[in-house]
């Protein structure tokens, strides 16, 4: 079967001919429908993030997938069920407390592998297998956009941690600032806009399709070149919630300036190293005197995947149509790595 992967030392993805996997009892054989491409895939391809499996010379890419159960073996799934796979699995050394508690997203990097990213083959192949507990059922009607459950789950977890950090008192967020108008930022805007006033900060000129999406969702686009993060409270209003999805290191600190009293900043970006001169006294004082919080969040657990699947049924159809700018058949897969907003490789249809 065809699989899309990256060789050790390679600088671009290519097609591999690999054996169709054989599911063991308790595993499910899934026929892949669509697999999304995101910034993490580009980081893996560039060699900045992730690793090939210990016993392999290439990594099958793809961590945002939706497929159809082909063979449920001994599991409770039925042939034809639409499913989304979660990303994290136990490391080669065996399972651990994080996986036993069904909290794989809380495992430190050394205590897990990530399919399609770090140490385990991903889902960009005609079929893949997975143990049943790592598969989340999706209503058949949502199959076309099911691959978005994974990136939405990342947003759901960030919001879950943010809310949890404010659970000791009555927190009624009315204003959110999303940093970044890449795929993750746009999904955060889509999730938050029905609930509160949302500002989305980017660095692009109009006309731009991502700015159009931000405004169509009812949110306000902020050009960070004119209004940097720390100026947003003065020019617009302070934010009860900041969701950072730029990967810009400064934003981890500047988010705190953008917060209203009692607010929380959820950081999602994965920046490289960078030196920065910061008034840490003011940063520290602002956190303490205004009861602010900063939480970092990576990956997502089962509850977040289930919330994301529910969200698929709530977001407007026009959003998916405009957000997923490119569907690419397997024989033209290269184009999926060069999309204007968000792309998916299509392996098959329901
Ligand atoms: P992208 O790189 O596609 O998007 C980042 C967006 O932020 C782009 O639109 C970019 O603008 C904008 N941006 C970057 N720097 C600035 C800046 N200084 N001012 C204003 N806008 C800026 O990434 P994704 O949307 O896929 O993901 C966002 C971040 O989250 C990345 O760092 C990614 O690695 C990380 N990530 C984290 C996950 C987690 O579990 N925590 C999961 C998935 C991703 P432009 O396009 O104009 O350059
Ligand atoms: Zn992703």
Fold and architecture overview:
It is built from 10 helices and 19 strands. The protein is α/β, with parallel strands linked by helices and 350 residues long. The strands form 4 sheets. Strands 3, 5, 6, 10, 11, 18 and 19 form a 7-stranded mixed β-sheet that branches. The chain folds into 2 domains: 2-139 and 313-346, Quinone Oxidoreductase, Chain A, domain 1 (Alpha-Beta Complex), CATH 3.90.180; 153-296, Rossmann fold (3-Layer(aba) Sandwich). It has helices at residues 39-45, 97-100, 149-165, 183-192, 209-216, 232-235, 249-258, 280-289, 302-312, 317-323, and strands spanning 2-7, 14-17, 27-37, 58-60, 64-71, 82-85, 88-89, 113-115, 119-120, 127-131, 135-138, 175-179, 197-202, 220-223, 239-244, 259-267, 293-296, 324-329, 342-346. The site of zinc ion (ZN) has 6 residues, from helix 3.
**Largest sheet descriptor:** 7 strands, mixed
Order of helices and strands: EEEHEEEEHEEEEHEHEHEHEHEHEHHEE
> Compute the gyration radius: what is it?
20 Å
CATH architecture descriptor name of the largest domain: Alpha-Beta Complex
Q: What is the domain total for the residues?
A: 2
Q: Uncertain regions: pLDDT < 50 for 5+ in a row?
A: none
What is the overall shape? Answer: globular
CATH class of the largest domain: Alpha Beta
- Distance, first to last CA: 18 Å
* Chain-averaged pLDDT: 97
Range of helix content: 25-40%
Report the β-strand fraction as a percent range.
25-35%
CATH third-tier fold name of the largest domain: Quinone Oxidoreductase, Chain A, domain 1
Number of DSSP-assigned strands: 19
Write out the distinct hetero groups bound to the structure.
Answer: NADPH dihydro-nicotinamide-adenine-dinucleotide phosphate, zinc ion
Structural class: alpha/beta
Our count of helices gives 10
CATH homolog superfamily of the largest domain:
Medium-chain alcohol dehydrogenases, catalytic domain
């Amino acid at each position: 079967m065809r699989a899309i992967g990256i060789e050790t030392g390679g600088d671009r993805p290519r097609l591999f001919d690999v054996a169709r996997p054989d599911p063991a009892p308790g595993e499910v054989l899934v026929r892949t429908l669509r697999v999304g491409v995101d910034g993490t895939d580009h980081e893996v391809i560039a060699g900045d993030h992730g690793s090939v499996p210990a016993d392999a010379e290439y990594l099958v890419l793809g961590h945002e997938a939706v497929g159809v159960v082909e063979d449920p073996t001994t599991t409770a799934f039925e042939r034809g069920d639409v499913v989304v796979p979660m990303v994290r699995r136990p490391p080669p050394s065996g399972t651990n407390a994080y996986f036993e508690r069904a909290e794989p997203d809380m495992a430190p990097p050394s205590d897990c592998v990530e399919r399609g990213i770090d140490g385990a083959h991903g889902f960009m192949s005609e079929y893949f297998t997975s143990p049943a507990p790592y598969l989340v059922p999706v209503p058949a009607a949502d199959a076309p956009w099911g691959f978005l459950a994974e990136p939405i789950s990342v947003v759901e977890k960030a919001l879950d941690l943010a809310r949890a950090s404010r659970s000791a008192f009555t927190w009624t967020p009315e204003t959110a600032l999303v940093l970044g108008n890449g795929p993750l930022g746009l999904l955060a805007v889509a999730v938050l806009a029905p609930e509160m006033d949302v500002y989305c900060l980017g660095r692009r000129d109009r006309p731009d399709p991502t700015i159009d999406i931000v405004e169509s969702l009812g949110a306000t686009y902020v050009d960070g070149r004119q209004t940097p993060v720390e100026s947003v409270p003065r020019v617009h209003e302070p934010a009860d919630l900041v969701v950072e999805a730029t990967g810009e290191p400064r934003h981890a600190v500047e988010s705190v300036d953008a917060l209203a009293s009692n607010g929380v900043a959820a950081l999602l970006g994965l920046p490289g190293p960078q030196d920065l001169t910061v008034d840490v006294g003011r940063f520290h004082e602002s956190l303490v005197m205004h009861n602010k919080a900063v939480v970092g969040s990576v990956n997502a657990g089962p509850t977040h995947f289930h919330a994301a699947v529910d969200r698929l049924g709530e977001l407007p159809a026009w959003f998916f149509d405009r957000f997923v700018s490119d569907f690419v058949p397997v024989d033209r897969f290269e184009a999926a790595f060069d999309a204007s907003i968000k792309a998916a490789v299509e392996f098959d249809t329901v």
